[in-house]
């Protein structure tokens, strides 16, 4: 089954259970001070859960564009290094708003994965919430009893609050959950160790695919749980992980969701995927980050120096640097992958097609602008690293990291990533204090600026001095005539 057929099978299944299919909400959240990006399928239904808004339909299903790079759910550092966490991913989901509850949710999940999609029962594990004294909650006996109708008791496990109590953020709708994990190891590996011991242990082949959340509470700002007026079901299944399972692959990146983009990338850089660990990581990171960036721009969020825009810029610059260092790109390349991405996902997400020109243009400009300073920045950082190694401190000063940020456009997390690759760290306190000084300088400067972007046509007639970061959504490229 290719990924398009899998997506359709999921939605069709829930249509057959009287669900209404709704569109994905935008990935970029505009009007919620608690959330920058959609991080789960349920976000768009928050007000229904809280009882602030009636549900148009009591049963809905969809595929939701999610981004997990900030706040409570941040998977950025895992991406590319593991094979099943992405920045942007699709979350398939079905919801009940004060309609069906645990029994149907569990039975349908089982019916879809096992009966319809054919995942073998002996490879499946279900977890249920063990309870938490802090919140005065007990073991979810109900969910456990339902799973025991489908699975032997060795495959029904208790999980702690971290894994089995789902919360959108520090506040908001939440509740106990029951998760489905799949063991994809080869038989000889499975004979050596039961999969039950590897559930929730970050094993790349024993992975969580579906989370069934029973939304019953609202977490208040003071940390207390308040019962919601009604009970709801909120489920989320990683689409790319489901594709890996159903296509018999051992990595999300080996599915057709990513393979076309990786193949194009491999052609562009003249390397083969699967030949060198470092280049492979770089290819995975780029194939992943491309999606986060393209979907953000399609939603109207351009890279900038502030909030959500800076998150997108950071992701893009990470991708550029992976390409530069490990795939030897010296010119803009990411924008050339947009076409392939569109061919792959444009049916399900038409915004990729309608915004293609804008997406390519913005990515290309961003890449070119960063590539102008990347080489010098990397050279400087190399020198700093040798110095730090020589003196044995293994730490680069915050002042240097700040210079990289301010003059060469290196986001701090990028500098930290490069340092980590070399076993070094940065002095964060020093960096923060430099940033503070900078902010007060720019507050004065901002008052005098009239325009927020200085565009110079003939770049070769000027010497690029760096970026000046201002407080608001403003970045000024500083140039000097030569
Ligand atoms: P994990 O434990 O693997 O980090 P999670 O428990 O944080 O996953 P949930 O919040 O329960 O994930 O989200 C529901 C489903 O979405 C997961 O079961 C998984 O299939 C998928 N998922 C979660 N995070 C990611 C990600 N970063 N990339 C791809 N799929 C993801
Ligand atoms: Mg997670
Ligand atoms: Mg989990
Ligand atoms: Mg989970």
Summarize the structure.
This protein has 482 residues and is α+β, with helices and mostly antiparallel strands.
Structural account:
It is found in: Cytoplasm. One of its GO terms (biological process) is alanyl-tRNA aminoacylation. Its cofactor is Zn(2+). Its EC number is 6.1.1.7. Belongs to the class-II aminoacyl-tRNA synthetase family. The chain is of the alpha+beta class. The protein has 2 domains: 3-250, BirA Bifunctional Protein, domain 2, CATH 3.30.930.10; 255-481, no CATH class. 42% of the residues lie in helices and 20% in strands. The chain has 16 helices and 15 strands. Strands 1, 2, 5, 6, 7, 8, 9, 10 and 11 form a 9-stranded mixed beta sheet that branches. It has a two-stranded antiparallel ribbon with strand order 3-4. β6, α4 and β7 (156-159) form a beta-alpha-beta unit. α8 packs across α9. The radius of gyration is 24 Å and the shape is globular.
Task: State the CATH class of the largest domain.
Answer: Alpha Beta
Helix content: 40-55%
- Mean pLDDT across the residues is 91
CATH topology of the largest domain: BirA Bifunctional Protein, domain 2
Largest sheet: 9 strands, mixed
Any idea what the CATH superfamily of the largest domain is called? Bira Bifunctional Protein, Domain 2
Radius of gyration, CA atoms, in whole angstroms: 24 Å
Count of extended strands: 15
Category from helices, strands and their pairing: alpha+beta
Count of individual helical segments: 16
What is the distance, rounded to the nearest whole angstrom, between the alpha carbons of the first and last residues?
Answer: 59 Å
Which term fits the overall shape? globular
The amount of beta strand, in percent, is: 15-25%
